[in-house]
Write a structure and sequence with these properties.
heterodimer; A: mainly alpha; two-stranded antiparallel ribbon; about 75% helix; B: alpha/beta; six-stranded mixed beta sheet; 18 helices; 22 strands; about 30% helix
Chain lengths: ~325, ~525
C-alpha cells in the first residue's frame, strides 16, 4: 500500500504555534467521519447493512475518481471546472467506440477521450499563460455543448450488456467493480502524488511557481501533466458512472466539478495550492458521501441535502482560512 | 543654479523625526534616526542600498509605522503616523513604483482618490477636474494633455505626473524616493526643475537618492545614512566635495573580516565575453575561476540582475559569448542551467525561493530529486536520511523534518535554499542577495558555508547589495554602473571601499584600477 499522505500534515506543519485545534487536527476528519456514521447508524440502522455499504461505495465512486484528479489541479495551484463535462463527453464518446468497435476499445476510449480533452486544457493554459479557471470554465461549456449536440440532448441507453454486467453489476471479493476502480485510482494517484518526482513538482509549482522555475522545474510541463490527469480521471469516472446508471447522459455528473473542489478543500487542501493529500481526498469524498447517503436514508429531501452540503463546504473553507492564519 | 536655499538654513522646521527605530522581524532597519525637514529646502538623503533611506521616507509619510521615536509636524508631536494623518498634515510621498493607473487619462490620475466629492456615487465634475489638471500641469511645466492616457507618456513624464499628483494639494512636505533612478540625464533636468519649483513654493522636499552628483545639483541640506542611522547632516552651501560625501557615506567603519580562502591556481570556469542582455547591459566581460567567489557590485538599476538572470537561464542573452568549463554555455531555462551544473539562489527568498507550505525535506531536495529517485519514484526513506545529515551540516536549527519551511527564521530558510542550490554538486552557484534580511549570526554561518563551497572547488557569483559582505568574501569584484563593467578589484580590502563606491555611483576616475590593467 503506497503512502497516501497524511491528510493534515502539510497544513499542520505550517503552524508553528499550535492553534487550539492542532492537537486534534490530525484525526479530526476521520473522527468526524466516524461521528457522522454513528449518528446516521443510530437514526437508520440499515445504514450499516452490507448492501448499503456497497451502495455507498458505488455512489461515491465517480466523485472519488474525479477528486483524485482534481487534487492534482488544486495542489498545483489551479483547478479544473471541466471535469464533469469531460466525464459526459468521455462517456458518450467511449460508448460510440464501444458500439462501433468493441467493449475493450470503448472502455479504453473513455479515459483516452478524457485525457485528450485535458491535454487541450493544459496546452491552452500553458501556451497562452491563461488562468485555469477561465480555460476550464470554457471547456466545461464546450464539452457539455458538444455532448448535447452529439446525443441530441437524450441519454444513450444503447449499451452492450456485457459491459454493464462486468462494470455495473460485477463484484470482486464482494466489492462492486466500480468501487474497486475508484480505490485503485486513489491508490495510483496517491502514489503519483506522494512518491514520485512528478508529484513533488506538483506541490512545488502550487506552493511557489517562481521558486519552482528558479529551482529548475519545468513548470509548464508539470502544469500540462496536471490537466491531462484531471481529464484522464474524468474519463475513468465515465466508465464507473456509465456502467452504474446504464446510460451515457449528456448531463451526466453535473455539479461534480464543484463537489470535487469541495471534497479537496474539506480534505485539508488550500485553494492557494501547495498543500493537500490523497488521504484528505478520501476523507472529503467520504464525508460528502455519507452526508448524502445518510440524509437520503433518514428521509431528508434532496433540497435540504443540497443545502447541507453547501454549509459543509463553506464551513470547510472558513476552517481553511483559520488554518492559514494560525 | 545657485545652491543656496531661498531662506536661511535655519528656516522653520516643518517636520522633525526624532529617534525613529524600525525593525522588520529580526532585522533592525532603523536605529534612532533623526531628521529635520525645513520649509522651502531640498533635503537630500544619501545612503547605500539597505541603509534604511526608503524606510525612513515611508515612515515620515505614514506608509510604515515606526516602532520607537516620534514625528513632530509643525510642533505637534505624533507618536504614530498613519497615511491619512500624514496627508491631512500635508505630507506626501512619491514612491519608486509609480502609483498611476496607465489606462486612465492624466487628469483622472491626478485626482484619483481626491475627486472632491463626498460620496462614492456622486458624479465627477469632469470640467473642473480638467481645468484644475491643466493648471497643475502648467505649474510643473508639463506639456502633455490632461486627457492623454498615462500609458502613452514616456517614463520621465509619468514620473513628473506622479510628482504633480503628490504636489496637487500644495503639501508642506514631499518625500521623493529615488525619483531619478529611471531617468536619463536629459530627463533629469526636467525633474530638477520640478523639484526647484516645489522649493520656491515653500515645500520641504526630502529627496532620497544614491547619486552623489544630485546633491550639488539641487540639495540645500544633505544627510548620510548608514546602518539605519543618520550619521551626518550638513548644509550643501558650504561647497561640499564629492570626496567629502563619500566619506559621509562610508564612514570609517572597521569591517569584520570573513573567511576567504586563497585561490590555489587560476583555472577559468565561466568566461563571459561581450555579453549583451538586451535591456541595460550591452558589453559585459568577466571571468570566474574554479573555487572562486566573484562579486558583481552596483546600485539598483546597474544591470546586475539582468546578468544573473541570463547566466541562470531565466532570460536570454542577445549577443556575446559565455563559456562554462571551456564549452559554450547558453541556458534556455533554469532547468537547463541546472543540468549544466549552474544553480541559482534568487533574491527575495519569500517571493522567488521558498516553498512556504512545503516541509524542510521537500524544500532542500527539490533541485536534485533525480538523485533520490529511481525511475521517477522517490526513495523517501533515503531522502529523509540524507536530508537530516545535510540540514545538520548546514547548521539549520529545526524541530522536525516535516515542519513547513515558513515556520523557520529567515536565516535558517536561507541556509536551506543554499543547501538546495548545492545539493546537485554544481560547478557554479549564482547568488543574489543571499544574506538579505537575516541576522548577523546566521550571516556568519552562511559565509562559512560559502567558504566550504570554494574548498570543494565550486565557484560562486555573488550579487549582493551589501558592500562590506562583497568585499569580505569575494576573491574578485567587478563594479558595475549603468550596464557597464567599470573596474575590477582583486582580493579586495576595506581600503577599496571608496573606490568601489565611486565606481558604482558613477564617479569615474576617482580611483580603482582599470579592468584591462
Amino acid at each position: 500500500m503506497p503512502d497516501l499522505g497524511d491528510a493534515d500534515a502539510p497544513a499542520a506543519a505550517a503552524v508553528d504555534k499550535p492553534a487550539p485545534w492542532t492537537a486534534l487536527k490530525k484525526y479530526n476528519l476521520p473522527a468526524f467521519i466516524v461521528l457522522l456514521a454513528i449518528i446516521t447508524g443510530v437514526l437508520e440502522p440499515k445504514f450499516w447493512s452490507g448492501d448499503n455499504m456497497r451502495n455507498l461505495l458505488l455512489q461515491i465512486s465517480p466523485l472519488l475518481v474525479i477528486t483524485a484528479g482534481q487534487s492534482f489541479a488544486v495542489i498545483g495551484g489551479g483547478l479544473d471546472l471541466s471535469v464533469s463535462a469531460i466525464l459526459a463527453a468521455a462517456g458518450v464518446g467511449g460508448l460510440a467506440v464501444m458500439n462501433q468497435i468493441g467493449i475493450i476499445p470503448g472502455v479504453i476510449g473513455m479515459p483516452m477521450v478524457g485525457a485528450a480533452i485535458g491535454l487541450v486544457n493544459g496546452l491552452i493554459i500553458t501556451r497562452f499563460r491563461l488562468s485555469p479557471f477561465v480555460v476550464t470554465l470554457g471547456m466545461l461549456s464546450i464539452c457539455r455543448g458538444a455532448t448535447l449536440v452529439a446525443t441530441a440532448g437524450l441519454p444513450v441507453y444503447d449499451i452492450p450488456s456485457r459491459f454493464l454486467d462486468i462494470f455495473g453489476d460485477g463484484r470482486i471479493l464482494g466489492l462492486p467493480v466500480g468501487g474497486i476502480i475508484a480505490i485503485l485510482c486513489i491508490i495510483g494517484c496517491g502514489f503519483l502524488l506522494h512518491n514520485t518526482v512528478f508529484g513533488r513538482y506538483v506541490y512545488a509549482v502550487g506552493a511557489n511557481p517562481i521558486a519552482a522555475y528558479n529551482s529548475g522545474v519545468n513548470v509548464q510541463r508539470i502544469t500540462l501533466g496536471i490537466y491531462v490527469i484531471t481529464g484522464l480521471t474524468s474519463g475513468i469516472a465515465a466508465i464507473v458512472l456509465t456502467s452504474w446508471v446504464a446510460a451515457a447522459q449528456p448531463l451526466a455528473g453535473s455539479g461534480l466539478e464543484l463537489q470535487s473542489l469541495a471534497a479537496v478543500v474539506i480534505g485539508g487542501a488550500a485553494l492557494t495550492g501547495g498543500s493537500g493529500s490523497m488521504m484528505g481526498v478520501v476523507y472529503g469524498v467520504v464525508i460528502l458521501g455519507i452526508l448524502s447517503n445518510g440524509l437520503n436514508m433518514v428521509g431528508v429531501s434532496s433540497f435540504y441535502q443540497t443545502m447541507t452540503i453547501g454549509i459543509i463546504i463553506v464551513v470547510a473553507v472558513i476552517l481553511d482560512r483559520l488554518r492559514g492564519k494560525a | 543654479m545657485s545652491n543656496s536655499p531661498p531662506e536661511t538654513p535655519s528656516a522653520r522646521p516643518v517636520l522633525v523625526a526624532n529617534g525613529i527605530s524600525k525593525r522588520f522581524g529580526p532585522t533592525i532597519v532603523l536605529r534612532r534616526a533623526n531628521l529635520t525637514l525645513r520649509a522651502g529646502t531640498v533635503h537630500i538623503l544619501l545612503g547605500e542600498n539597505g541603509a534604511g533611506k526608503s524606510t525612513l521616507g515611508k515612515i515620515v509619510s505614514g506608509l510604515l509605522q515606526h516602532d520607537e521615536g516620534q514625528i513632530i509636524i509643525d510642533g505637534q508631536v505624533r507618536s504614530s503616523q498613519t497615511i491619512q494623518a500624514a496627508r491631512s498634515a500635508g505630507v506626501e510621498i512619491v514612491l519608486q513604483e509609480l502609483s498611476l493607473i496607465p489606462e486612465l487619462p492624466v487628469a483622472a490620475n491626478l485626482f484619483l482618490g481626491h475627486e472632491g466629492v463626498h460620496t462614492t456615487l456622486a458624479p465627477i465634475a469632469r470640467h473642473t477636474e480638467a481645468r484644475e489638471a491643466a493648471s497643475l500641469l502648467k505649474r510643473f511645466g508639463l506639456t502633455c494633455g490632461a486627457k492623454t492616457p498615462v500609458s502613452q507618456l514616456p517614463m520621465a513624464e509619468r514620473q513628473l505626473v506622479e510628482i504633480a499628483k503628490a504636489a496637487r494639494g500644495r503639501p508642506r512636505v514631499i518625500v521623493m524616493d529615488e525619483p531619478s533612478s529611471r531617468l536619463t540625464q536629459r530627463e533629469k533636468a526636467a525633474l530638477f526643475a520640478t523639484v526647484r519649483a516645489l522649493r520656491e513654493a515653500g515645500t520641504a522636499v526630502l529627496y532620497i537618492t544614491h547619486h552623489l552628483n544630485e546633491v550639488a545639483e539641487i540639495g540645500d541640506q544633505v544627510s548620510a545614512m548608514r546602518g539605519g542611522q543618520i550619521v551626518e547632516t550638513t548644509d550643501v552651501s558650504g561647497g561640499l566635495s564629492e570626496r567629502e560625501l563619500l566619506r559621509m557615506l562610508t564612514g570609517r567603519d572597521v569591517v569584520t573580516m570573513y573567511p576567504r580562502l586563497p585561490l590555489k591556481r587560476k583555472e577559468p570556469l565561466l568566461e563571459v565575453e561581450h555579453l549583451d542582455t538586451g535591456k541595460l547591459c550591452h558589453d559585459i566581460s568577466f571571468t570566474i575561476n574554479r573555487g572562486e567567489i566573484v562579486g558583481l557590485y552596483g546600485v539598483v538599476g546597474c544591470g546586475r540582475d539582468e546578468i544573473a538572470r541570463t547566466l541562470v537561464g531565466a532570460a536570454r542573452s542577445r549577443a556575446g559569448h559565455v563559456a562554462l568549463a571551456g564549452k559554450t554555455y547558453r541556458p534556455t531555462s533554469p532547468a537547463a542551467a541546472s543540468s549544466a551544473a549552474v544553480t541559482y539562489i534568487p533574491p527575495d527568498r519569500k517571493e522567488n525561493g521558498a516553498f512556504a507550505p512545503l516541509d524542510l525535506v521537500s524544500n532542500l531536495t527539490l533541485n536534485n530529486l533525480a538523485h533520490y529517485a529511481n525511475f521517477g519514484v522517490i526513495d523517501r526513506g533515503r531522502e529523509r536520511r540524507e536530508a537530516q545529515g545535510k540540514l545538520d551540516r548546514l547548521t539549520v536549527r529545526f524541530s522536525s523534518l516535516r515542519q513547513a519551511i515558513s515556520g523557520l527564521s529567515g536565516g535558517n530558510q536561507q541556509k536551506i535554499l543554499f543547501g538546495r542550490s548545492i545539493d546537485r554538486k554544481p560547478q557554479l552557484v549564482v547568488m543574489e542577495d543571499p544574506t538579505a534580511g537575516i541576522d548577523a549570526g546566521a550571516k556568519q554561518e552562511l559565509y562559512r558555508l560559502f567558504e566550504d563551497l570554494t574548498r570543494e572547488g565550486i565557484s560562486a557569483l555573488l550579487l549582493s547589495s551589501d558592500l562590506d559582505e562583497t568585499i569580505a568574501i569575494c576573491h574578485q569584484i567587478y563594479t558595475l554602473f549603468n550596464g557597464r563593467v567599470i573596474a575590477a578589484y582583486r582580493d579586495p580590502t576595506p581600503a577599496d571601499r571608496h573606490a568601489i563606491l565611486a565606481d558604482v555611483l558613477g564617479q569615474e576616475g576617482q580611483a580603482g584600477r582599470d579592468i584591462h590593467a
